Amino acid sequence: MPDRMLQFVRVPQQTPEKRAVTARRTDFDEIYARFAADDAARQSSRCSQCGVPFCQVHCPLSNNIPDWLKLTAEGRLEEAYEMASSTNNFPEICGRICPQDRLCEGNCVIEKGFESVTIGAVERFITDNAFDRGWVQPIRPAAERPQSVGIVGAGPGGLAAAEEMRRHGYQVHVYDRYDRVGGLMIYGIPGFKLEKDIVLRRWKLMEDSGIIFHLNTEIGRDIPFAALRARHDAVLLATGVYKPRDIGGPGAGLSGIVAALDYLTASNRTGLGDEVPDFASGALDAAGRDVVVIGGGDTAMDCVRTAVRQGAKSVKCLYRRDRANMPGSMREVKNAEEEGVEFVWLSAPEAFLGDDSVSGVRAVRMHLGLHDASGRQSVEPIEGSHFTVPASLVIKALGFDPEDLQSALGQRDLAVSRWGTLKTDRRTFMTSLPGVFAAGDIVRGASLVVWAIRDGRDAAAQMHRHIQQNAAVAAAAE
Ligand code: FAD
Ligand code: SF4
Ligand code: SF4
After folding, report:
1. Ligand 2 centre from 100 Cα, in Å?
2. What is the distance in A from the centroid of ligand 3 to the CA of 119?
3. Ligand 3 pocket test, candidate residues 49, 108, 111, 115, most atoms within 8 A of CB
4. Which of 372, 351, 271 is nearest to 27 (CA)?
């Protein structure tokens, strides 16, 4: 082992520089700077090269983290890039937006009392640096294959599968109802976490690799699903989950109460230079308004922080549990608090006040009760604890469910779970329809980019197997 490693006793943990709050409140640029090469090497050298690397065990992609940290510490950056990209299609994206505190870094076992290796920031550095130096090149398959695959959905799940299939030499067609590639990475996740250029750069690389995109094309509406199946040797459904969970109660229909994804999409599109009528009219713009976001997940965090940047008068987040029991990443909560967001823990909305437009939220205090079968504490309202929060824009960020794909695709035989997600064979990734595979949120329910990438890669391996088996059978029959 080189004496460069195991430096955690001598070198303290350092995260990339975070921009000052006053600056970052006013724009949508990423808040973390990139490591300088020296810093990346120094931080990588803190790794103790564990025999059983728990960081890797808890990375959904089983990235070879200790190996690429060692290469980075030694300045062998091209090899580090080769290694990082061998298990991850979009390392620079995961390095930015994985909840590392719950995954790799949260499981780094540097001795107690020392903070974890900054794995995500190094992964981001390795790939950004590789792009800068021209080491990231389009895919050039060794040989072209005659068969084609149709991938429905250009989110991380569909895109990872597209790359893997193209590497095998297939003719890859990706269909998406949006006008841009990226799925939630382009229209859901805000620029201050993931700048749009990073996603657009990948889109260009994929086009240069020969992957064909059919945008503004909704399967089931613009192209019947049966026609798509007939066109390709295998089909992958990676359509994500988009049906927002709603909230009822008195006043729920007032204007000024909007869904999180409508709000975030309008903001992201505006940032990309699109004309968005609902943003221009003010309906989806938080500027000058008292904003209340309902929910405690990552989508809620993205909404509160977007509202701050749009110049809201005040921004509050209402969540029915407490800080320790919220699903959102602690890092994002801390960032939001720094930027001036007020969290109203243990509070749930009961009614929305106002005549035509919302003017306030009547909420009730909650307390955490006994643990239920899932291990989570139940939440119960505290009688007589009502209070009112002023609000001229209420954003509902309560999570997402799958749309009814059986109806959308006109396929009653497409098996779904009781939650509406697609049922797949756990080994083959195939749905109940022969030759139709599925990956990402539409199988798991709302999850993470890194899991969608993992599923896309695994599904691609199975599609390859399926197509080759069919080809062998056809050849034998001739
Ligand atoms: P998606 O990214 O949803 O892509 C699905 C694509 O399918 C879309 O482009 C859609 O237009 C297309 N599509 C759907 N139906 C059709 C059809 N019939 N025909 C053609 N196209 C269709 N994860 C993280 O890891 N870190 C984060 O910080 C993070 N932040 C998030 C913030 C927000 C606001 C949201 C909503 C999610 C966030 N996530 C985050 C979760 C992450 O974005 C998703 O888990 C991931 O994008 C799922 O990938 P996917 O490929 O399954 O689906
Ligand atoms: Fe960590 Fe995500 Fe990178 Fe895996 S992909 S090493 S979990 S940042
Ligand atoms: Fe290095 Fe931490 Fe992974 Fe161990 S757990 S190999 S110290 S990054």
Report:
1. 6
2. 9
3. 108
4. 271
Residue 93 beta carbon below 6 angstroms from any ligand 2 atom: no
Is the pLDDT reported for residue 388 higher than 70? yes
How far is it, in rounded angstroms, from Cα 87 to Cα 68?
Answer: 11
CATH class of 247-396: alpha beta
Residue whose structure tokens are 């690389």: 205
For range 410-422, the mean pLDDT: 96
283-303 pLDDT, tens digit per residue, is: 999 999 999 999 999 999 999
Q: What does the CA dihedral 452, 454, 458, 464 come to, rounded to 10 degrees?
A: 80
| Tokens found for residue 452 | 């969608």
Ligand 1 and 157: CB distance under 6 A: yes
C-alpha 28/C-alpha 381 separation (Å) is 37
Please tell me the distance from the alpha carbon of residue 315 to that of residue 159, in angstroms, as a whole number.
Answer: 35
Name the residue of 9, 11, 100, 109 to mutate for ligand 3: max ligand atoms within 8 A of Cβ.
Answer: 109
Tell whether ligand 2 has an atom less than 6 A from the beta carbon of residue 59. yes
Pick the CATH number of 148-241+402-477 from 3.40.50.300, 3.50.50.60, 3.20.20.105, 3.30.70.1130: 3.50.50.60
Q: Where are the domains of the chain?
A: 7-132, 148-241+402-477, 247-396
**pTM higher than the cut 0.85:** yes
Ligand nearest to the CA of 221: 1
**DSSP H helices in 380-448:** 405-409, 441-444
CA 125 to ligand 2 centroid distance, Å: 13
Distance CA 222, CA 83 (A): 40
Atom number in ligand 3 closest to CA 66? 6
Give me the percent of the chain exceeding a pLDDT of 70. 99
In 220-297, where does DSSP find H-type helix?
A: 225-231, 260-271, 277-280
Decide whether 148-241+402-477 matches 247-396 in CATH topology: yes
* Nearest alpha-carbon partner for 381 in 361, 367, 363: 367
- pLDDT tens per residue across span 315-343: 999 999 999 888 888 889 999 999 999 99
pLDDT confidence of residue 112: 64
Torsion (CA) 368, 371, 376, 381 in degrees, nearest 10: -30
Question: What class, spelled out in words, does domain 7-132 have in CATH?
Answer: mainly alpha
**Distance, CA 116 to ligand 3 centroid (Å)?**
8
